[in-house]
Amino acid sequence: MIISVKESQHGLMVIVTDKIILGKTFSEGKVQLDFTKAFYQGNEESKEKIKRLMLEARHLHLSGKQAVNLGLELELVNKDKILWVKGIPHAEVIVSS
After folding, report:
1. How many CB atoms lie within 10 A of CB 78?
2. Domain locations in the chain as residue ranges
3. Cross-strand pairs, 26
4. What whole-number distance in Å separates Cα of residue 43 and Cα of residue 56?
5. Residue-wise pLDDT tens digits, 67-96
6. What is the reported pTM?
7. Considering all CA atoms of the chain, what is the largest pairwise distance in Å, rounded to the nearest integer?
8. Dihedrals φ, ψ of 70, to 5°?
């Protein structure tokens, strides 16, 4: 998985994207997931490091099956709030303090 860490209006933002979908675009109806954007670029990290950063984050952007499953495993993502586009899951979470 690829991770990028940024500061957002909500605090620490962690973007986790499955490596296999990076550089691709998926469209369905009026919804598009565009993983060619610099926003999704980052570094490949271990699952353990990604978990630690996800738990520290105030805002999460998770894209792809591995990334979203990690959010579900950590009980950060509500499975009913996952957006699916062409079989690719995407979830955004703002963690309340």
Report:
1. 11
2. 2-94
3. 33
4. 18
5. 999 999 999 999 999 999 999 999 999 987
6. 0.93
7. 36
8. -65, -40
C-alpha span between 4 and 16 (Å, rounded): 7
61 closest CA partner among 30, 87, 28, 37: 37
Q: How confident is the model at residue 8 (pLDDT cuts 50, 70, 90)?
A: confident
Q: What are the tens digits of pLDDT across the range 17-34?
A: 999 999 999 999 999 999
Q: What does the block give as tokens for 27?
A: 């469209």
Strands 11-17, 59-63: pairing is parallel
Find the length of the chain: 97
Site of tokens 């950063």: 53
pLDDT for 70: 97
Structure tokens at 82: 């996952």
Backbone angles phi, psi at 48, to 5 degrees: -65, -45
The topology under which CATH files domain 2-94 is 3.30.1860
CA distances from 55 to 20, 36, 43, 77 (A): 24, 26, 18, 12
